[in-house]
Amino acid sequence: MNQFQYVRPSKPQAAIEAVTKDANATFIAGGTNLVDLMKRGIATPQKLVDINRLPLNKIEKENNGLRIGALALNSAVADDKLVRQKQPLLALALNAGASAQLRNMATVGGNMLQRTRCSYFYDLAMPCNKREPGTGCGALEGINRMHAIFGFSDKCIAVHPSDMSVALVALDATVLVSGPKGERRIPFADFHRLPGDTPEKDTNLEKGELITAVDIPDGPFTKHVHYQKVRERASYAFALLSVAAALDIENNTIKAARLAMGGVAHKPWRLTAAEQVLVGKPATEATFRQAAEVAMQGAKAFKHNAYKLKLGPNTIVQALRTAAAAA
Amino acid sequence: MKAQDKQIGAPMNRVDGRLKVTGGAKYSAEYELPNMAYAVLVGSTIAKGRLTSIDAKAAEKAPGVLAVVTHFNSPKVPGFDTAGKDPSQPATVGGPLKIFKDDKIRYNDQVIAVVVADSWERARYAARLVKAQYAQEKHKTNLEASVSDAFLPTAAKKNPKHPMNDYQRGQVDAYKTGAIKLESEYVIPTEVHHPMELQSITAHWEAPDRLTLYDKTQGTMATRRDFAKEWNLPEENVKVIATFVGGAFGNALHSWPHESAAIIAAKVVNRPVKLMLTREQMFTNVGYRPYTWQKLGMSATPDGKITAITHESIGQTSTYEEFTESTLAQTRMMYQSPNVTTRYRLASLDVCSPIWMRGPGEATGAFALESAMDEMAHMLNLDPLEFRLRNYTEQDPEKNKPWSTKFLKECYQLGAERVGWNKRQLKPGSLRDGEWLIGYGMGVGTFGAHRGAATVGAQLLPDGTVLLQCATTDIGPGTGTVMTQIAAETLGLDPKKIRFELGNSSFPKAGTQGGSSTVNSVGPATQEACLALKEKLRTLAGAAFASAKKEDVTLTDGYLTLAGNAGARVPYADLIKQGGDKAVTVEAKPGPEGQQYSMYSFSVHFAEVRVHELTGEVRVSKLVSCADAGTIVNEKTAGNQMKGGAVGGIGMALMEAAHIDDRFGRYVTKDFADYHVPVHADSPDVQVAFVNKPDPHVNNLGTKGIGEIAIIGVAPAIANAVFNATGKRIRELPITPDKLI
Ligand SMILES: Cc1cc2nc3c(=O)[nH]c(=O)nc-3n(C[C@H](O)[C@H](O)[C@H](O)COP(=O)(O)OP(=O)(O)OC[C@H]3O[C@@H](n4cnc5c(N)ncnc54)[C@H](O)[C@@H]3O)c2cc1C
Ligand code: SF4
């Protein structure tokens, strides 16, 4: 690990300033991702600005929704009464991620900003445009079982590994950000980026910008929700593919629907076209299949991840089935 | 537990259990010596070629750095020029990598430098500053692409009696003309041992010609011999200490480059040096279960008699060692078949050498054989258990000798009952529970009941306790515990009054802990040492004892007593006062029975699996492992072995695979995010049953060995259950969801 400085401001403004001023400074929250990256030599910050003392961990009602502070722990959010009542899908997605120990350290802001798990990204001896722009994409013609089927570029085919973010994009969340130029709100769907020609940039967050909270508008998705995560073992593994599904059903007719996929793109992948297929239809297997087919339009596989073209629709059906049946 | 209770067979708690769970057990990386330095390895980033230069300037200037040792500046290791092949490892031709000896790169992440600093963190930082230049050559890391270059191992070429030679009984490849026949190919990927404890060593030159190693090893004597040879030292000048070993599964059966590196580094900085591998380096520098391709042909009569089997295999090895394992052994002796052909080949790749991993060879071979048994049973429309019973061997068809004991039928019965085999349907895909398809499968395992010579020292101490010592290691099975039980029963002494010390090359000698042979070998030595000790004490205890029968003498609470003679009670204190030697050292060796009998442990594993119809996820909902392992000395530790093996088998079946990107000849699976081992949620409550009948021929205790048969046969049991659930036959492990949708 490199030598680095460490500061622990107690005011957001001081933290923002510290990172803005210093080209090699970065925020650290739970550290569960950043410290790993530092140990591997992938992140080499010279200054760590610890934000754990900032007053940003509240979970509260706000206007017509929920406001979750950026420093709220993954476990605290998943166990929160309000969250479970109003947005149970978020709790399910959080609990599908990592392990209890990690969720006790990981924060909401850090979770959104965790970096890809592409093995080439993690190995300094391998080419990777995301880690070292211009070196090439190791995964493109390499071992790409875990990689994207949507929205990739020939510069990068990585996927975003967060489970929580799949639920948040489905729930129309908004990210609250405070930076050197003031505050702004970023719709969750616009927070993460596609790789394009600059895969080194995961999100649209600017240097020095601090995530302060996430807003989730209230909605009807309090009962028929499900987060289906398919992985290579029963627990504690990143998703091969995951689906967040939320339905509002009345008299077996779907009144509103939300659907998003994880493990398929450089960002959590919202499936709006498929949602439209669902609305107004009976909550049946045939409807779910139809939505799943629409959801997969435009998907393209690489050498080792063709299974996702089938696992995707199957998992969507499974998630919708389970959501519809949830009592 | 009281002295008069039966000790052998009792489910005694581990003697070191408390130390282990409270952190009191000291593992090799936990020794702190005065003036210690810390070493971190630097690995190559190409798979084949030559090192042209190493730029270590920045590393050398980094804070706290004491030395950067590379091929270009390493002191000469005297034994590298003389040490040839390793006599302890007859199956391995070639020899361990001689680190820093030349500029050749033989595999990716080969050790090219060791950085030594005054703290581990500083060494680690500086290690990243070392830059190497290479002249790269074209490498080969793909076995499938090297099939045409596969060769008969040199040891077999040289010696027609070598077990790796082609085997033939009856006609060659007779299955091809069989009435009902199959021919299938099977692949197991590279699997990595990954014990919880990382490989580590502390090397301390106590004098220029005296070396002490606190090392993670399965064999203190083997490690001592290897490094005595490497440095041209008399063996008694090298001491190896491995009091606790945090699991190994085979990867500490070999001496590895990091050990040589630490010893060289300690020489250079003239301080004790501690070196611990990273988890990434555990993939690349300490062996693995080799990627293996297999083809199995089988024919049978319509009434379910096997008429022929041909089993071929090609295993991966490195370019500098020919690593072989007994992949095809089970096929030659498990089933009654008049015609059997086996052919074993190797493919040399630009990779680190493999090393035996739990159930070595047999676990790989059993995946092919036991899957093929299931395939044939299916073709014959027969229950797979019935098919196995119709081809049961009452004596060893390979060696034409009687089994020393074989209670596999009893295992079948125990296991079938417990798993609920009667629920199994012949037609795949017949059972379901909602979205989950349910299936049942079985797999059989066997492993030789190996026994070697071992020596144990025993002495009565002044405080009335008995101290036993042996150089054997305990890598987790509970060796110290069962030896304490054996001693307690033999002496008639409370186990609390016995201490069994192990893991030190200065103790009386024993073989390496591997091949399920420790209890078979060290057990009888413990027993005989205790008998000899009793005998010695009897002669010191006066006339009544001297004329009594040996068996009647016991050591109870502070006294030597005689059965049936309440008056004969001699306090230890009296014996101790008497002077004279109260210590014995006894060697126990296998007898001639090995020539007369075929000696094997047997196991069968029954699995119930659930496969999700849409996502292809597999959950093992029941796993029942039954073993004929002779006498069970301790149900608890033996049960632990079986459960651990079963969980390893789940990993093998469903998730473990280390992949190399052949363009770079470099692993892409380099941590536990990419290389999955089972978590608790993947493992059902494994049920274990033992036949627990003594084998009268392996040794006096009646033991046959457990560690290997615990995993051999588990993976095919699960694969066969997946077939029964889904109708999909997966012949390439692991069975991940993508293969089932
Ligand atoms: C073994 C393991 C398994 C895992 N499995 C899963 C899984 O299955 N599913 C899953 O979703 N995740 C998984 N994770 C990832 C885990 O969820 C993330 O590591 C965690 O959420 C990161 O949160 P943190 O607070 O620790 O972030 P940190 O590591 O502290 O920070 C991560 C990044 O976010 C930045 N940052 C943090 N907070 C802010 C803020 N408020 N404003 C601006 N920038 C900020 C930091 O600068 C840093 O760049 C796993 C991690 C590990 C180690
Ligand atoms: S997919 Fe992206 S992260 Fe992975 S190697 Fe290519 S550029 Fe790097």
Structure description:
Chain A: InterPro entries: CO_DH_flav_C, CO_DH_flav_C_dom_sf, Diverse_Substr_Oxidored, FAD-bd_PCMH, FAD-bd_PCMH-like_sf, FAD-bd_PCMH_sub1, FAD-bd_PCMH_sub2, Mopterin_DH_FAD-bd. Chain A: GO terms for molecular function: FAD binding; oxidoreductase activity. Chain A: Pfam families: CO_deh_flav_C, FAD_binding_5. The complex is a heterodimer of chains A (327) and B (741). With 327 residues, chain A is of the alpha+beta class. Among the domains of chain A are: 5-49, Uridine Diphospho-n-acetylenolpyruvylglucosamine Reductase, domain 2 (2-Layer Sandwich); 224-325, CO dehydrogenase flavoprotein, C-terminal domain (Enolase-like, domain 1, 2-Layer Sandwich). Chain A is built from eleven helices and twelve strands. In chain A, helix 5 runs antiparallel to helix 8, helix 9 packs antiparallel against helix 10 (285-295) and helix 10 (285-295) runs antiparallel to helix 11. The model of chain A has no long low-confidence stretch (mean pLDDT 97). With 741 residues, chain B is α+β, with helices and mostly antiparallel strands. Chain B folds into three domains: 17-26 and 452-589, Aldehyde Oxidoreductase, domain 4 (2-Layer Sandwich), CATH 3.30.365.10; 31-138 and 193-284, Aldehyde oxidase/xanthine dehydrogenase, a/b hammerhead (Aldehyde Oxidoreductase, domain 3); 148-190 and 289-450 and 595-739, Aldehyde oxidase/xanthine dehydrogenase, molybdopterin binding domain (Aldehyde Oxidoreductase, domain 4). Helix content of chain B is 25%, strand content 26%. In chain B, strands 3-6-1-13-10-11-12 form a seven-stranded mixed sheet, sandwiched between helices. In chain B, strands 8-17-15-14-9 form a five-stranded mixed sheet, with helices on one face. Chain B has a five-stranded mixed sheet with strand order 20-21-29-30-33, with helices on both faces. In chain B, a hairpin with a 4-residue loop joins strand 31 (660-661) and strand 32. The relative contact order of chain B is 0.14. Residues 116, 118, 120-121, 128-130, 137-139, 156-158, 199 of chain A line the site of iron/sulfur cluster (SF4).
